Amino acid sequence: MTPEELNRAREWITAYVDGELPPGEAARLLELIRTHPELKEDLDACLQAKQLTTMTTHQSPPDAVWTTYWSGVYNRIERKLGWILFYAGAIPLTLYGIYHLLESLLGDTELAWWIRLAILAAAAGLLVLLVSITRERLHLHRNERYRDIQR
């Protein structure tokens, strides 16, 4: 068996274990496994790994752990700083993209004037809606009555 065929057979093994291998290729793979013991070892290893990963479950930590975690000043500042930095980069990049999109669409002389006006109105409406939603969320966040109440 050539190295290329061996690699293809190993790819087929993972697809076979995941149930994604077509029947014709599955039959060819089973024939190869019967004649090549190293492929049988690979199949057994993949089946064992799949069995272990399906048996593994994620356990969430108890609420006391999260309460202790979020009571730390560093943890609260870290999350807020991350969001501030994300917005500091995302907002200018988004505005830059919108500017160039509008510039290319509105600068196209082949478009009718009313289509350019409709694009501009839709963009302005979207901007007003985004500002409105942002203002509403900030207002609700500042006036949240249950902010310090824990479940």
What's the total helix number?
6
Question: How far do the termini sit from each other?
Answer: 62 Å
Beta strands, count? 0
Biggest sheet overview: none
Helix/strand order, N-terminal first: HHHHHH
Helix fraction bin: over 70%
Beta-strand residue fraction: under 5%
Oligomer classification? single chain
Could you tell me the mean pLDDT? 86
Shape: flat
Number of domains: 2
In the predicted model, the low-confidence regions spanning at least 5 consecutive residues are none
- Global structural class: mainly alpha
Taking Cα atoms only, what radius of gyration do you get, to the nearest Å? Answer: 29 Å
Compact summary:
The protein has 151 residues and is an all-alpha fold. 79% of the residues lie in helices and 0% in strands.
How is the topology of this model organized?
Layout lengths: L2 H15 L5 H13 L1 H19 L7 H9 L1 H34 L6 H30 L9
Describe it.
The longest helix has 34 residues, at 73-106. The relative contact order is 0.04. This protein has 6 helices and no strands. It is mainly alpha-helical. The protein is flat and about 70 Å long. It has 2 domains: 3-55, no CATH class; 63-142.
Comma- or semicolon-separated keywords:
151 residues, 6 helices, 2 domains, flat, 0% strand, 79% helix, mainly alpha
